[in-house]
Amino acid sequence: MPNTVNHHSVTHTAPAIRAYLGGSFDPVHSGHLQLAIYVYQSLLPLAKQQQRELQVSLLPNARSPFKEDSTHPEHRLAMLRLATQETPLQINELELWQAPPVYTIDSVQILRARYPNDSLIFIMGMDSARSLDKWKDGLSLTDYVNLWVFNREENPDIHKRFSETDLLIQLKSQLPVPLQPLVTVSATELVIPPFRHLTDSPILKNAYQGRIYIDPRPVAAISSTQVRQYLHQSHSRTPHSLHIKHAAETQIAFLQPINAIISNTAPNSFAKWLNPAVYQYIIAHQLYSAAQFR
Q1: Interior/surface letters 238-276, b for 16+ CB within 10 angstroms, e for the rest
Q2: What is the span of the domain harbouring residue 286?
């Protein structure tokens, strides 16, 4: 059964917990899955305890206005479906088919209007959170949703140099100053059911929104740009006539299954970056070839 969310579906009567990880997913890689799975695993006990529906969704955006060579949405959606087919993650197409530019503030307003009684969470890296004051109405995101922020640190030793308390203080200081008072030490505060709004209320925020949880766990500092560059280099080293045959027979053999990727136990290699089915799709459709980067 497809795991794509139809955003026009009927809202459940019981307040649900809905978390979203936005991005271009060009291509989707293990770093994306790691963040979303961490959130799902953390929220699942709370959802069961509160007898609430839990959805953690990947929210692919429209073609980036900053990337003229962005991969077509159909390909990005197909890769997302392959990457998530053995996971509990959903895919939400709210932004995917809109004409760019599409702004996050517009999406969170739509989602809050659609789900006024649900706990809504947006997942992002600290690299994005620290620059929210430069987004269109970025500081207003917390008027509609809570934020779950991960520290995608390229130097994992930073977690050894600081205690968890000191690390959180250091990370909190990186947020724009207006957002720093909203930081909470517990993810539980992100899923307290909001009060039911009056139907004529012009503002859809409430006392339980606007919290920010900084997750102290180290996560992989992998970007889609790095993956594309790696693929470009791989294509450049392989004669065009051998791309599909050579890659399918040699490189696929070294890739790990999705469970190994999610659990982060695979060796530090290309296997940790892409789901094998996604890599096969890239080869079959000749995506991210050298020609795309000329």
Answers
A1: beeeebeeebeeebeeebbebeebbeeebeeebbbbbbb
A2: 224-293
pLDDT digits (tens, 9 = 90+) for 56-109: 999 999 876 556 667 999 999 999 999 999 999 999 999 999 988 899 999 999
Helix/strand/coil for 45: helix
- DSSP assignment letter at 111: H
267 and 210 belong to one structural domain: no
Any domain includes 6: no
Residue range 156-190, pLDDT digits in tens: 555 566 677 888 899 999 999 999 999 999 999 99
Is the domain of 152 the same as that of 126?
A: yes
Q: How far is CA 181 from CA 136, 142, 148, 152, 291, in A?
A: 21, 12, 15, 22, 48
157 plus 280 within the same structural domain: no
Mean pLDDT of the chain: 79
Which structure tokens are listed for 256? 């790990």
- 67 against 230, higher pLDDT: 230
Token pair 């429209």 is found at: 62
Is 5 part of any domain?
A: no
Range from 79-83, 93-97, 146-150, 221-225 carrying the lowest mean pLDDT = 221-225
4, 93 Cβ separation under 8 angstroms: yes
The model's pTM is 0.80
Q: Which of 157, 266, 176 is nearest to 218 (CA)?
A: 157
Number of domains in the chain: 2
